[in-house]
Design a protein that fits this description.
The structure is a homodimer. By secondary structure, chain A is α+β, with helices and mostly antiparallel strands. Helices cover about 45% and strands about 20% of the residues of chain A. Chain A is built from 17 helices and 15 strands. Chain A has a five-stranded mixed sheet with strand order 1-2-5-4-3, sandwiched between helices. In chain A, helix 7 crosses helix 8 and helix 8 packs across helix 9. The first copy, chain A, is globular and about 85 Å long. Chain A starts with a helix and ends in a 5-residue tail after the last helix.
Chain lengths: ~450, ~450
């Protein structure tokens, strides 16, 4: 009972922070109406109509967020080229008085603009009645909009609580950088469970893989930790981007909050900037060695960049492991023009010797080759010896430091197209321990600190 | 053809070194006859008879070896107690004029004595016609003797070559310390293959497991790299003690000798005593750290001691591994009163941090316990974090040096009965790198040198 009160108290306080005020709502609505009207003005000419979608349409946005997504719905029999061209033309007209506009690409090109403090996307799509017959992923959005509006059933406040909770835990957003919960996924979870508290209670007992199929119409299987079948598309998992660890972080946060309700689950802590002194004290306690690489940030969108960074990290982890370096932790950071990949290692220097394993003694041909090659090898540090039935020899290690290894081998690793290109064109810097401590960018120091204390950035 | 000559040349030279001269043979035969006669003198009283067995009986001994094994054969219906008592009494009378005698134990007690430069074993056993009905392992020996004498077919010289070859490779002897080829096994291999050269040629193509069953009468299966069914016991593998690595060393040596025949395969190199300077130079190239333990040598026979040393080494390797220490190589040495166990490690000191893995995030009860325990743990060096679906926390490492770990944990490890007893009663010394270099015993320095350059002691 006491806890129940405590929940309500906290939620009231959170609502006061995240529910848009009447004035804020009216202003956003006016801006949205203006954009839709401007699109509709093209109706006679192009058979299009404007539609406000996303959290602004569903009233599930959080105070302070000023994102407006408006779709231009074209008739189903428009040519794709025509849709793309006219779509952009109409969008440019709609955003004619924006302070800034930018062409962006999803499956179609679309326009992003900033206008009177709002971040606005104007996205052309097909107006397709039957969502099973959509022509591109964005054509689903009007259907999502419709489903949520029909089923939200006054749960907008609970959606806002859930979003704020996920944001604070650092797991909100379906970009590949975050691999968290999308807004639509959050809305579906609230609709399915009936309230934010019910969602937390359910999540407390989740054991991946968890499947939720509101319409009971799943049409195929999915390999993912959380599977939420899209109510408008029986073949689609709305949660396909969510990583196992982010799902686990949600399960963990849900349990912790229910156990000990606190405002801290809804307010991002102000990240204090650690001093170099603090970082060095932690490093000295951990006794580990840092090693890193920096290179020019390729000029591509985050959803292209982050998977490449992940691929690069995996390749280099394999390289380090194959060369006997033990990595405690690793992470990457993208700043304005530079990207960084940093490893925390067991040791800065490996011994000069490495054990080289040869063929089994009974594999005669291989054995003869091995013995001929290593009989008087200039890099040998031992006799040829037999262990577990195989030939071995101890050889001089080529790379006793991670820096020497990375310097020499990085271009042979799988790095992702644009990162490899950046490194080939602009080179890269190997950053040993001391140089990493000398990078003066405050964001870099926060990154280093979080990497060392294993703090999940929120 | 040239190689064939070369083999013959070498064998002639080896024969000159290892074949006992006429004088040497006559003297040994006289001593053996004397011992057998002395036993036969007890025939009227106890229905016993003496029998010369082993390499002396089969004329497969190597010049300079003065081992004589004489068995006292008791009638099958003698009581076991009687056999043991009378056996020892007779043996004492036989060895009355020995310079030194010692009671030893196999399945029965027996007497070992040194007399006029000969090492003599006088062993009581049952005289059992049918080897399938033997009462103890030693009862098989007279049958082995008979089989070899009936089948040796003038191959004594080849047996001597094989023994000398195996000795030089450090793999002759079926004691648990060596885990090599016994004399009987060597004789059987020569009988089976018809000559030393044929044995080498066959071994060059061996792929373990290798099975040899001269009498084609195997009565059960064996899990061993080399299986040589005892011609006098279809259930017994004569090569059961031989380790995989020693079998591989034989395969390797056989191939190498056939490829490039040389006297070096028959003459043990005189082990030069490495200087401390040499050891330190190798260590500095290898860049590794040494750590060791010494303790009082338990007063037990080698066949009991070496398996315990092996067990101790295995336990401590597991302990080191579980605590993140990486061992490059390890070895033990038994001196007069002390035993040593030495590890060559990747590093002398580990970083202060260790990663502690907790339960999966979805194992609610375990998760709650883990979080309660580590929420504000005094040894934590990080937040509690989630990785691969599991809780983790970085904690202060308890033991950053192998010395601290071994000092604290050795008595909790499986050490073998007598070693554990020795350590509990007399304690143990932890020997860090520098102290190991200060051990002045010349045998210890040879051991350390061989450990580092991975030289198989011969």
């Amino acid at each position: 009972m006491k806890k129940q009160e405590s929940f309500q108290n906290i939620f009231e306080k959170v609502f006061a922070l995240i529910t848009p005020g009447e004035e804020e709502q009216r202003e956003l609505r006016e801006m949205a109406d203006l954009l839709v009207e401007r699109i509709n003005a093209f109706k006679p000419q192009y058979q299009v109509r404007g539609m406000l979608v996303g959290s602004a349409a569903r009233n599930t946005w959080i105070s302070g967020e000023h994102d407006i997504d408006v779709f231009i719905l074209f008739s189903e029999n428009t040519e794709r080229r025509e849709l793309e061209e006219m779509g952009l033309n109409i969008a440019r007209a709609v955003l004619a008085d924006a302070e800034e506009i930018e062409e962006r690409y999803a499956e179609h090109p679309y326009l992003h603009g900033r206008m009177k403090g709002y971040e606005i996307d104007i996205v052309p799509c097909y107006n397709i009645k039957d969502p099973h017959r959509i022509k591109s992923a964005v054509d689903r959005t009007p259907h999502h909009n419709q489903f949520i509006q029909q089923h939200i059933n006054s749960l907008e406040g609970d959606v806002r609580l859930a979003k704020q909770f996920l944001k604070t835990a650092g797991i909100y957003g379906s970009e590949l950088r975050t691999q968290g919960f999308s807004g639509y996924l959050t809305e579906l979870l609230i609709i399915h469970h009936g309230s934010f508290l019910n969602l937390l209670r359910a999540a407390s007992d989740w054991k991946p893989p968890v499947t939720i199929d509101i319409q009971q119409h799943a049409a195929c299987t999915h390999d993912a930790p959380l599977i939420v079948i899209d109510p408008v598309d029986p073949r689609r998992n709305v949660a396909s981007v969510l990583s196992l660890d982010n799902l686990c972080r949600f399960i963990d946060a849900a349990r912790s909050f229910l156990e000990q309700p606190d405002m801290e689950y809804f307010i991002k802590p102000t990240q204090t900037h650690p001093s170099l002194q603090e970082i060095m004290e932690i490093l000295s306690k951990r006794g580990t060695a840092l090693s890193g690489i920096s290179f020019s940030r390729p000029n591509i969108v985050e959803d292209d960049l982050y998977p490449q960074l992940e691929k690069m990290r995996d390749s280099l982890l394999k390289l380090l492991d194959a060369n006997d370096f033990r990595v405690v932790n690793s992470g990457y950071l993208v700043l304005e023009t530079q990207a960084y990949l940093v490893f925390e290692l067991f040791e800065a220097v490996l011994p000069g010797v490495r054990k080289h394993t040869g063929p089994p003694a009974w594999a005669r041909k291989h054995a003869e080759k091995f013995k001929a090659k290593y009989a008087a090898h200039p890099e040998s540090l031992s006799c040829i010896y037999i262990e577990d039935g195989r030939y071995h020899i101890d050889l001089l290690r080529r790379h006793t430091t991670p820096e020497s290894l990375l310097q020499r081998e990085i271009l042979k690793c799988g790095l992702g197209k644009h990162i490899a290109q950046s490194i080939r064109e602009h080179g890269f810097n190997i950053l040993p321990h001391q140089e990493l401590l000398r990078v003066e960018h405050p964001e870099f120091q926060v990154f280093l600190y979080n990497l060392l204390v294993r703090k999940q950035p929120s």
